[in-house]
Amino acid sequence: MSLDSFQNITQELPTETSPPKTHNHEQAIHTIQIPESIRQAGLATNELISEAIAFLHYDGIVVLENAIDTAHLDTLDAILSAEALEIAADPFHHFNFGKETQNMDQAPPPTRELMFKDVCCNPFATAILSGMLGPRLVLHYANGNTALRATGRQPVHSDCEFEHPTFPFAMVININLVDTSPENGATEVWIGSHHVSTEVAAISLATTGPTLGLLHIKKEIVEERRKHYPPTQACTTKGSLVIRDLRLWHAGTPNKTDEPRVMLAFVVQPAWFQGRSKVKLPLDVKDMVESWELEFDAEWVGEVDHKKISSADVDFGSKSEVLEKYREKLAHKPGYYVSSY
């Protein structure tokens, strides 16, 4: 074929263009139903793992239904819901983005009887995240947040309050103890936002109001994304777990009911990332926890008062010297990254 012929052909080929800005991306969270026989066996299939990893990369979030024994969640909910108002009355207790949100830290009791393995080291979540992040997973955070009756909401934010890499380095496992809906404060999530959360220009420091000194996504950037990729709420059934990329934009929404809505939160990072945060656990669970497939980066102490556990000073950054050396470079998409040809 002559050069002239080749040029004529290429001129006739359709060119790929970005979708029109008026088109809304389908904002539905990908959900995987785990068959009861698989749940009871506790062994994730390759099909389950591949589907979950694919959508974690694509959307930054996935829901696994029927992943946990609901009796375990009922046991925890009976304890934590009863304690919620007592904890909220503590004037020193940490509320996420101010007391107006009525969204507070509330950790599960770290005892042998209540640290259910399918909650604290879920076999499906660990299998998926081992495939995504690497074979040696480390748990750096074990807490929860409870939404009490409120009218206020959180600003849209990411849990990465630092200059962070453009690749996956931390995943959150959220477990609601009850069914969730817009009525009881199902979390608002911005599907796919983990792809853009690295843009430093998107982060703003609140200078007034109840969120003073806290980081959130700039309002003008949130509103621009809302036009084309609006948020949705992660409404889940009891027994489900949500895995989301730490970088994903999200926000707590008001609980309009009188029943506390408790959601547990665990953050897992690969050992190679050398995460900074530790969990505080009592010595009498050490042998049990160390027999699990998930490594806990723990400070082992005599006793732990779960009612006092706070997320105020948590740090999901890395201790790695080499990652620190290249931190600024890795926090930006490379110059050769383009969205179309």
Describe it.
The longest helix has 19 residues. The strands form four sheets. Strands 1, 2, 3, 4, 5, 10, 12 and 14 form an eight-stranded mixed sheet that branches. Helix content is 26%, strand content 19%. It is built from ten helices and 15 strands. The N terminus is likely disordered. The two termini are 24 Å apart. Helix 3 packs across helix 6. The protein is globular and about 55 Å long. The chain is of the alpha+beta class and 341 residues long.
Give the N-terminus to C-terminus distance in angstroms.
24 Å
From the spread of the alpha carbons, the general shape counts as globular
**Percent range for helical residues?**
25-40%
* Elements, N to C (H/E): HEHHEHEHHEEEEEHEEEEEHEEHH
Summarize the structure.
Helices cover 26% and strands 19% of the residues. By secondary structure, it is an alpha+beta fold.
List the helices and strands and how they pair.
Blueprint (H helix, E strand, L loop, with lengths): L2 H10 L18 E3 L2 H6 L4 H14 L1 E5 L4 H19 L14 E3 L11 H4 L2 H11 L3 E11 L23 E6 L11 E2 L13 E3 L9 E3 L1 H10 L3 E2 L7 E5 L4 E2 L9 E10 L8 E4 L3 H4 L5 E2 L1 E4 L19 H5 L1 H4 L11
Parallel strand pairs: 1-2, 4-14, 13-15
Antiparallel strand pairs: 2-10, 3-4, 4-12, 5-10, 5-12, 6-9, 6-11, 7-8
Essential attributes:
disordered N terminus; 8-stranded mixed sheet; 341 residues; 3-stranded antiparallel sheet; 10 helices
